[in-house]
Amino acid sequence: MSNFGQILEKIGEFGLFQKRLVAALCIPIVFAAFDVIGQVFTGLSFPHHCNTDWILKLGPNLTEERRKNLTLPVNKAGKYESCEMFSPVDLDLEIIEAYGINTTTGCINGWDFEAPKGASSIVTEFNLVCDRSTLIEASQSIYMAGLLIGALVLGQMADRFGRRFVVLLSLLLLLVFGVGAGFSPNIYVYIVLKFVCGFSVSGIILNSSVIGGEWSDSSKFALCTIICHSTFSLGLMLLCGIAYLIPNWRILQLVLYSPLVVVLGIFYWILPESARWLITQGRKEEAIKEVRRAARVNGREVLEDLLDKLDDEDASKRGSMLDIFRISYLRKRAIIMSYVWSGTNLVYFGLILNVGSFGLDIYLTQFVFALVEFPACLCNLPLIQHFGRKICLAGFLLFAGAACLGTLVIPKDLPVVVTIIAVLAAFAATASFSIVYVYTAELYPTTLRQNGVGLNSMCARVAGILAPLIRLLDVYHYTIPMLIYGIVPIVAGGTCLLLPETLNVELQDHADLLKPENGPQTRSFNEEEKSEKSTKM
Questions:
Q1: Is 504 left (phi over 0), alpha (psi -120 to 50) or beta?
Q2: Rounded distance between C-alpha atoms, residue 486 and residue 320, angstroms
Q3: DSSP 3-state assignment of 49?
Q4: How far apart are the first and last CA of the chain?
């Protein structure tokens, strides 16, 4: 056991200090959920057709239905075209009614949206329909690019400047740019602001659970991570209710992000730095101060001789992302986990961002998706503690992929059945998501943990960028997007079986250049058996 592990044993491995810390770290995850899935509601599309007010100059008393009949062509389904209109002509109304208009054109005067009273979205305000509709997918993909860059940059910053600094910086950025997005004058400013929001969300998601986990015993790392990430589903459920009550997207942005002012102020005063990280950086005095603070909250006393024995291995042990590729066993883990993260991300966002296409009410469907995510996270804990991380992750990925493929064999006139299968796929994808955060963090040493998680998360965001763009392939055949969403996680589930198991293994603080792939697992497990200290819940 490491010196810090001995100190945790004395001050409390999961006492009041750790429980309060994990509970507080759940709050930023809720706001991260608002941001990741928020565009499902701020980007709502409504029935629309071309603005044809030009004919009102000829017949100001025309009813709306009569106006549509004279100025809008009808498609094969017997409905008015959304993106075409009859060309405006300089003729008398009687002639138009008698002979009609034979030429068509695009919507040259904008669009009319059949939105409920008081409702608006970026689609209605920025006219993101017809030839501009691809800007919705582009916005989602650029947001995912922000998550990617954030994972790369903020992961390294967390290992260099500390977890606390990155969480506070991320909260500040999300507050400023989340509120700012509500004042966007056009879609291009909105996309830029959302890119920065995505950048900040990576810092929140990557570091919130890690701080709690590094303050706890290795046996509680999975518990801390899963509790934090289970609140993501709580955020989604809250988002559904808030978005339903506030249909105006600009007001919705302000309501969702303004409370971060309070959260940021409280976190500035109460959020501790990871003592485990401080020790690896050689900042022994700061680590001792944080340890004493934890002991005081837990009602314990820490022996001074244990504090004096704290590892002081700073300069020679500091790592960078390049170390992951220099060390063979870390390189193997990084490559495999990068693909596993990509498969998990692709199927998750492929389903979540596509809820409007399942044929049911979008608020209800999204709420059901969020509702199943909560048990999906919580049921993981006993499963991964009994069967291990590797088997559970592989199983859920295989199930998610198979469920996605299963939706393709269901007739389109059975939207309820399709939605049920998609919900099951979302259940498995969410379970995979929560496991992958636990498993990945345990595969890397403390000095490289956030670099490693950031690298894998960066690869996952590439899949997140592609997820909304893959939906555009349905113009070639409607089955192509779901085929991709199904096959990729199945392959990912197979590749993760090549990784070592981390169940019952003490967290590693520094990388071992000569460490064999399975050596540390066997040694750590045997040592824990000898000490009769189980790392199970």
A1: left
A2: 35
A3: strand
A4: 18
Structure tokens that stand for 70 in this block: 């004279």
Alpha helices (H) along 43-126: 64-71, 93-99, 122-126
Give Cα 62 to chain centroid, integer Å: 49
Q: In terms of Cα–Cα distance, which of 260, 178, 149, 163 is closest to 209?
A: 163
Taking only the tens of pLDDT, the chain with its 537 residues reads 456 777 788 888 788 898 999 999 999 999 999 999 898 899 888 888 898 888 888 888 888 888 888 889 888 878 888 889 988 888 888 888 888 888 888 888 888 888 888 889 999 999 888 888 888 888 988 998 898 888 888 878 888 888 899 999 999 999 999 999 999 999 999 999 999 999 999 999 888 878 888 888 777 877 888 888 888 889 999 999 999 999 999 999 999 999 999 999 999 999 999 888 888 787 888 888 888 888 888 888 776 766 666 655 443 455 667 778 888 888 899 999 999 999 998 888 887 766 655 556 788 888 887 888 788 877 888 888 889 889 999 999 999 999 989 888 888 777 778 878 888 888 898 888 888 888 888 888 877 877 888 788 888 878 878 887 888 788 788 888 889 999 999 999 999 899 998 887 776 766 665 554 444 443 433 343 333 333 333
Classify residue 36 as exposed, middle or buried by CB count within 10 Å of its CB (0-12, 13-18, 19+): buried
Do residues 23 and 208 touch, judged by C-beta distance below 8 A?
no
Q: What is the rounded CA–CA span in Å between residue 292 and residue 279?
A: 14
- Cβ proximity of 421 and 402 under 8 Å: no
CA 422, 458, 21 angle in degrees (round to 5)? 85
CA gap 337, 264 in Å, rounded: 32
- The tokens describing 34, both together, are 């608002």
Q: For the chain, what percentages of helix, strand and coil (3-state, to nearest 5) are there? A: 70, 5, 25
